[in-house]
Please model this.
Amino acid sequence: MTTVTIPVHKSRSGKSGAMTITVGHVATPTAFGRVPRIARLMALAVRCDGLLATGDAETRAELARRGRVTRARMTQILNLLNLAPDLQEAILFLPRITAGRDPLKLRKLLPIAARLDWR
Model:
């Protein structure tokens, strides 16, 4: 457990003091670098698929409007779901990028996603 004390300044009531909060877990930055763009797009595809499945979004066009992208771009993103599940998982857990450009681009994955053969 971690205890954090926050000073509280005078309010309109004229009271001041300190507030104590007990936190079970404090997040510490353990990973450096950034999440690869393709991993973020894969996570977005999974999220959008969930919205379609639950009925929170009715069509891909609605998702595109919500995301402020074209319908074609939304289709590209959702086509990542055509990849084999083990590839999807590998993409989601790609290592963080500490320097340089992303090594894997959506443009390279779309032809693979177009084939519906998971062998």
